[in-house]
């Protein structure tokens, strides 16, 4: 769910652009000045695309980095998910309901010319987040007034397309609108968030559950509710060693004026969470403990979230992707000047690797220096 919202949800007439290499600018933020000068703190990363360095370690991460705008359109076609499938050498992503109803699914070829195509997947209704599961795509199907929200596993291979619904409810109570999902690689269990954004956007019934996180074993069907107390739990990811879980709360972005109405009356409430929480993962990867604040997003809300192999934490925010170290220190930002609801790391068959950034009306690829890699790239891309 993005913080920047449009109102023309039928805007499918558009002009597609060709890839453009951005003349990326690198700016080092003066932290002492920012702490004392409100105007400087507000404007330090405005008006350009590139890299904002808050800590010298970030300069090493983005050394020789290249930022390319793959495509832009006149509606929010690049919003969520972001899943690389090696067999097709494509990244799959979803559009934003705010300007695309029903929500479309797209793929982009990892190799040049990076062709973007619309795709259809059976049983996937109003999709949002997704992940790579057994070299297939596990979608968070948010559902509709007549179709329950579900985890849907899709084989995108053109020669043998198929889909399988894995879960639709918690012990008889339908999910609200499943938002994002990750895999605990050691035990093959699925962890997912279930906020109320489907209701907030008026395509799901009034919620029958709080905004919560669940753990699910596909092999046995057993399901556990593992965390609550959120305004709107959203993105989630494990640390590289699976000892910590990071969860974003995007409660600052919600419907206003007393309810969902037509589903497009969204606004930002700065008094509500735009926060990343951290948990310890305990009892052999089955339970969460010791919830604490990890970081707060200063621009928009933190949405999709991932770790690199060094344990740094990346999250899509209101002006691009923000990066923190494992202790919650802001290292820097990849600035696109637009909301980045989600992103994904990948390494294509040609060897090029980096971050695909879904910035609503724009799709970017950021090629980082050799050695900077998402924590799951070796699992998903080899």
TrEMBL record:
<dbReference type="InterPro" id="IPR011042">
    <property type="entry name" value="6-blade_b-propeller_TolB-like"/>
</dbReference>
<dbReference type="InterPro" id="IPR052988">
    <property type="entry name" value="Oryzine_lactonohydrolase"/>
</dbReference>
<feature type="domain" description="SMP-30/Gluconolactonase/LRE-like region">
    <location>
        <begin position="145"/>
        <end position="250"/>
    </location>
</feature>
<feature type="domain" description="SMP-30/Gluconolactonase/LRE-like region">
    <location>
        <begin position="268"/>
        <end position="346"/>
    </location>
</feature>
<dbReference type="Pfam" id="PF08450">
    <property type="entry name" value="SGL"/>
</dbReference>
<dbReference type="InterPro" id="IPR013658">
    <property type="entry name" value="SGL"/>
</dbReference>
<protein>
    <recommendedName>
        <fullName>SMP-30/Gluconolactonase/LRE-like region domain-containing protein</fullName>
    </recommendedName>
</protein>
């Amino acid at each position: 769910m993005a913080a920047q919202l449009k109102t023309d949800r039928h805007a499918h007439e558009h002009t597609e652009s060709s890839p453009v290499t951005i003349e990326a600018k690198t700016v080092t933020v003066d932290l002492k000045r920012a702490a004392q000068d409100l105007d400087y703190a507000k404007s330090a990363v405005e008006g350009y695309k590139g890299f904002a360095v808050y800590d010298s370690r970030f300069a090493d991460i983005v050394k020789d980095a290249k930022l390319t705008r793959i495509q832009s359109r006149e509606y929010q076609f690049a919003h969520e998910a972001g899943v690389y499938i090696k067999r097709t050498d494509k990244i799959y992503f979803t559009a934003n309901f705010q300007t695309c109803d029903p929500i479309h699914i797209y793929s982009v070829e990892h190799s040049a010319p990076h062709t973007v195509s619309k795709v259809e997947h059976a049983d996937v209704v109003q999709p949002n987040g997704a992940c790579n599961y057994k070299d297939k795509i596990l979608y968070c199907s948010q559902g509709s007034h007549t179709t329950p929200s579900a985890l849907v596993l899709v084989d995108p291979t053109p020669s043998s397309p198929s889909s399988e619904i894995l879960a639709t409810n918690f012990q008889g109570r339908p999910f609200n609108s499943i938002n994002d999902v990750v895999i605990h690689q050691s035990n093959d269990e699925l962890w997912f968030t279930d906020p109320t954004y489907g209701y907030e956007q008026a395509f799901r019934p009034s919620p029958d559950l709080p905004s919560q996180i669940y753990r699910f074993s596909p092999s046995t069907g057993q399901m556990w509710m593992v965390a609550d107390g959120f305004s709107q739990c959203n993105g989630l990811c494990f640390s590289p060693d699976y000892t910590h879980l990071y969860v974003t709360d995007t409660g600052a972005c919600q419907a206003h004026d007393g309810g969902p109405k037509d589903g497009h009356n969204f606004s930002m409430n700065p008094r509500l969470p735009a926060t990343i929480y951290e948990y310890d993962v305990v009892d052999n990867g089955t339970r969460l403990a010791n919830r604490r604040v990890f970081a707060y997003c200063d621009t928009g809300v933190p949405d999709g979230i991932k770790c690199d192999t060094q344990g740094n934490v990346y999250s899509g925010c209101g002006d691009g992707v923000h990066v923190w170290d494992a202790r919650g220190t802001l290292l820097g930002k990849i600035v696109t000047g637009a909301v980045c609801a989600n992103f994904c790391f990948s390494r294509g068959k040609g060897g090029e690797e980096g971050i695909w950034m879904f910035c609503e009306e724009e799709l970017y690829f950021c090629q980082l220096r050799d050695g900077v890699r998402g924590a799951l790239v070796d699992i998903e891309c080899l």
